Amino acid sequence: MDIKGSVVVITGASSGIGAATARAAAAAGARVVLAARREDRVRALAAELDGAIAVRCDVTDQAQVTALAQAALDAFGRIDVLVNNAGQGLQAELEQLSLDDFRAVLELNLVAPLAVMQAVLPTMRRQNSGSIVNVSSGTTFADVPGTGGYVASKIALERLTAIARNELEGTGVTVSAMIPFATSTEFILSIRAGRADAEAMTAGAAFDTPEQVADAILELIHSGAPQKDLVPAAYGGTR
Question: Quick one: 7-228 is in which CATH superfamily?
Answer without folding.
Answer: NAD(P)-binding Rossmann-like Domain (3.40.50.720)
